[in-house]
TrEMBL record:
GO terms for cellular component: Mre11 complex; site of double-strand break. One of its GO terms (biological process) is mitochondrial double-strand break repair via homologous recombination. One of its GO terms (molecular function) is 3'-5'-DNA exonuclease activity. It comes from Rhizoctonia solani. This is Double-strand break repair protein. Residues 314-491 form the Mre11 DNA-binding domain. Residues 556-567 have a biased composition (Basic and acidic residues).
């Protein structure tokens, strides 16, 4: 598409090719989901193969560093095979003699492992020879868990201390109503020539808690003193699509000091930067590099991007991924097919023949798209080799059709021709909704609902719903139902086998501490425990789910109902103003006036460019930062 100014006045020039010493080159990717379906004999290596391609592209384009926006791993506790391959690839492609051109200006020890001397930023470690640094936040799949002596840990912590990744965006959330608590975001400050980059990261936070932190004015961004001279990137890993009143982050919530938001978690590729109404920044959503579900969004061609930043200008070039398995899907309505194609929906043989023809057509479509994708990047059929077995999904709407074949048995006819020979077909019926009833995008299902087929229950019912129903029938006398539900969910989904025992032990210790300070007679023990249970449940809600404590001033929550309302998601940009804090390198001033930024996209080059807003300073030589020191100008 053509590139124009926001006022429509004309095209913008790209960044200058004559200033490579001032251009920071970044490889953007997210949601690699390494380890997804790794035991599958066909698809098991898809995620790690594409991650290898991302690293190869980073080396090919000679980037300064790689930026990942969460969910590097699919499982919270990756397997030994998964960790082994990931660390081996990172060592192979990111360590080496390539000179580092980006100078670290912030504290290299910010976020380092407690009790150890090595810095948090791996290329500042004199014992490591890093060629391409990798910066990453955590996602909802690989988030920190546990409560050991080193606190909550995740797989990225392991990669960080191994020296192959720079883990940023880890938050220690508390239940305190101290206005200085909450989410505090300190940037990694980098410089190459005359270009200065502030890199902000926020790892995944529970959606309800994130909503609470934003609404309660508890999200604080620390900014450099000379903040007008920096290009600011923010990495987030949250719901972008609204799946409920408290289950998404509004696109317009970020401060105008941000130039570009890199949005992880959403798997559909919207990598070309999109402007936000009423804001000066842009959002790029790279999407996942591997399909983890056979949904519409996963069928969009997958890309990573080369992001180039020069002074206050950026240019983004989408790069298609070649190793992604072909995926095609379609939907048919049998009632409509009966009219247009003349099939007899009362005859099972006739219906299955029709569906078989549609699946064969999808396989052929996948083959054609595979060849077109290779031709687009100049790869001949001989060089491309044989196509990987494609993922094929045909959704069949069966409303009004009483007799259907077994979809698993049908799918097995395509063994050796598709990568998912157990679930090629998915049958479903049109849903009827009661008048006036509002249903979220993903309704919560009950395991005891007799109107829902067993297959749909197993696919959609949530663990927390099962636990909630059980605990409602078996009321706990001492432990809080909400905390127990979360502990069981963590045990199941995160494979954290100590989550239940840790919750029980922490609850009992809290009860013992509170009871020791009270005079409780044996006759009143049950009442005292009931009261303690209520107090403990309330404290748990404040610390985990973001039930707002009372805060003085305009940002005070009116009541719990208001805190859960849709309107409460309209967060003012002032919530992300700088707050200073305990770090001299950052100021307590208000953010600078909104900067003018403009996006440019050119069809012939697939690039997106933003207009510079300020004249660059004289270029200093690129160099490494001194270990343990901050090289930015400090002020009182």
């Amino acid at each position: 598409m053509s590139a124009v100014n926001q006022d429509g006045s004309g095209a913008l020039p790209p960044i200058s090719d004559e200033l490579p010493e001032d251009t920071i080159k970044i490889m953007l990717a997210t949601d690699n989901h390494i380890g997804y379906n790794e035991r599958d004999p066909i698809r098991g290596q898809d995620a790690i193969n594409t991650f290898k391609e991302v690293l190869e592209l980073a080396r090919k384009h000679d980037v300064d560093f790689i930026l990942l926006a969460g969910d590097l791993f699919h499982e919270n506790r990756p397997s030994r095979d998964c960790l082994y391959r990931t660390i081996a690839l990172l060592r192979e492609y990111t360590l080496g003699d390539k000179p580092i051109q980006i100078e670290l200006l912030s504290n290299p020890d910010e976020g380092k492992a407690d009790g150890f001397s090595f810095p948090a930023i791996n290329y500042e470690d004199s014992n490591l020879n890093v060629g391409i640094p990798v910066f990453s936040i955590h996602g909802n799949h690989d988030d920190p868990q546990g409560a050991g002596p080193d606190g909550a840990l995740c797989a990225l912590d392991v990669l960080s201390v191994a020296g192959v990744i720079n883990y940023i965006g880890k938050s220690d959330l508390s239940a305190s109503d101290d206005p200085n608590a909450g989410i505090q975001i300190k940037p990694v400050l980098l410089r190459k020539g005359a270009t200065q980059l502030a890199l902000y990261g926020v790892g995944n936070v529970k959606d309800q808690r994130m909503h609470f932190e934003l609404r309660s004015n508890r999200v604080k961004m620390f900014m450099p003193k000379d903040k007008d001279d920096w290009f600011n990137i923010l990495l987030v890993h949250q719901n972008r699509v609204k799946r409920g009143p408290l289950e998404a982050v509004p696109e317009g919530m970020f401060d105008d000091s941000i130039n570009l938001v890199v949005w992880g978690h959403e798997h559909d590729c919207r990598i070309v930067p999109e402007p936000v109404a009423g804001k000066e920044y842009f959002i790029t959503q790279p999407g996942s590099s591997v399909a983890t579900s056979l949904a519409d969004g996963e069928a969009i061609p997958k890309h990573v991007a080369l992001l180039e930043i020069q002074h206050n200008t950026f240019q983004l070039t989408p790069i298609p991924l070649r190793t992604v398995r072909p995926f095609v899907l379609d939907e048919v309505h049998l009632s409509e097919a009966a009219e247009t194609d003349g099939i007899d929906v009362t005859n099972q043989v006739s219906v299955m023949k029709f569906l078989r023809e549609r699946v064969n057509a999808l396989i052929e479509q996948a083959r054609e798209e595979w060849h077109e994708r290779n031709e687009a990047v100049g790869i001949s059929p001989a060089e491309a080799g044989e196509m990987m077995l494609p993922l094929v999904r045909l959704k069949v709407e069966t409303t009004g059709v009483s007799v259907m074949s077994n979809p698993v048995r049908f799918s097995q006819e395509f063994i050796g021709r598709v990568a998912n020979p157990r679930d090629v077909l998915v049958f479903h019926r049109a849903k009827t909704m009661s008048k006036g009833k509002v249903v979220a995008d993903e309704p919560e299902l009950s395991i005891d609902d007799p109107t829902i087929p067993v297959a749909e229950k197993l696919q959609k019912v949530r663990v927390q719903n099962l636990v909630r129903e059980y605990l409602a029938a078996q009321e706990l006398q001492l432990l809080g139902e909400l905390g127990m539900s979360d502990a069981i969910q963590t045990f199941v989904e995160k494979d954290e086998n100590r989550s239940i025992s840790e919750f029980v032990n922490s609850s009992l210790k809290a009860y013992e501490k509170k009871l020791s300070g009270r005079e409780v007679h044996e006759a009143n023990l049950d009442d005292a425990l009931y009261e303690l249970k209520g107090e403990h449940e309330k404290e748990y809600q404040e610390s985990q789910l973001g039930i707002a404590p009372k805060i003085k001033g305009k940002t005070r929550a009116k009541d719990d109902d208001d805190a859960r309302s849709v309107d409460s998601m309209e967060v003012d940009s002032e919530m992300l103003d700088g707050t200073g804090g305990d770090h001299e390198a950052f100021s307590e001033d208000e953010p600078p006036p909104p900067k003018k930024t403009t996006t440019r996209a050119k069809a012939s080059t697939s690039k997106t460019t933003a207009k510079p807003t300020a004249k660059p300073k004289a270029k200093p030589p690129a160099k490494r930062g001194a270990k343990g020191k901050q090289l930015i100008e400090l002020s009182d």
